[in-house]
Write a structure and sequence with these properties.
Blueprint: H1 12-23, E1 38-40, E2 48-57, E3 60-67, E4 77-81, H2 86-93, H3 98-102, E5 106-109, H4 113-122, E6 127-130, H5 132-167, H6 183-189, H7 203-215
Parallel strand pairs: 2-5, 5-6
Antiparallel strand pairs: 1-4, 2-3, 3-4
């Protein structure tokens, strides 16, 4: 029995043009005129929303409001605004019916003051909740700053001991921990384990972590 495979050549430009002009109903789309600057979908409103800055293309930031109940699927988007300046974003979001905006009980956002102002003015009844990923990012950054400070301190102490050994004409033998690392090596290699949850550490990372937290509580 023979199997035949048909190959159809399709012109990409022509297909795109046909879709835009005929199949997509773009020419009769109600929001076509303002689509470059803002889009709102009142039918997607819910009691729990999120607002964030999103880089959609070429570094351009958009303010995007989503319905958390949709979990990123169909009917998630409440608004997309092609700027992040608070006054402009507020003016567009206020096109949403005030009654619907007052029914929003919670809005998740980052820690930027502009986002707080947008949420306050646009959804006045909503409790503002800081997005946990932004909190985690700040916490991880703070931990890494401490690690780097301790590393430089260890380097300074090591250089002092090297100089003393040279003056006294004695060999310099750096202190090693139970895993074979010096303080400098330990603080350098612990960078990645501090980004990970303990349940994702390898056996060697678990050993290093125990030493790090014991030596630098």
């Amino acid at each position: 029995m023979s199997t035949f495979i048909g190959i159809v050549s399709v012109n990409g430009k022509k297909l795109e043009r046909q879709y835009k002009q005929h199949l997509s109903n773009f020419s009769t789309w109600e929001q076509r005129e303002q689509a470059r600057d803002w889009l709102i979908f009142p039918e997607n409103m819910g009691s729990s929303l999120s607002i964030d800055e999103v880089n959609l293309s070429m570094g351009k930031l958009y303010a995007v409001v989503t319905n958390k109940a949709a979990k990123g699927k169909k009917s998630s988007i409440v608004a997309i605004i092609a700027v992040t300046k608070s006054a402009i974003v507020i003016s567009y979001l206020q096109k949403l019916d005030l009654k619907k905006r007052n029914q929003v009980t919670e809005i998740t956002l980052d820690i930027a003051n502009s986002m707080k102002l947008i949420a306050e003015k646009s959804f006045p009844k909503a409790k503002q909740v800081t997005d946990r990923f932004h909190v985690q990012k700040l916490a991880l950054k703070a931990v890494q700053e401490v690690r780097i400070r301790l590393k430089w301190d260890a380097l300074d102490k090591e250089n002092v001991r090297i100089t003393e050994a040279q003056v006294n004409k004695t060999p310099f033998v750096p202190k090693e921990f139970s895993n074979g690392d010096t303080a400098k090596q330990l603080l350098t290699r612990s960078r990645f384990l501090l980004y990970k949850s303990p349940n994702k550490w390898s056996e060697s990372q678990k050993e290093s972590a125990a030493i790090v937290f014991e030596e630098y509580p």
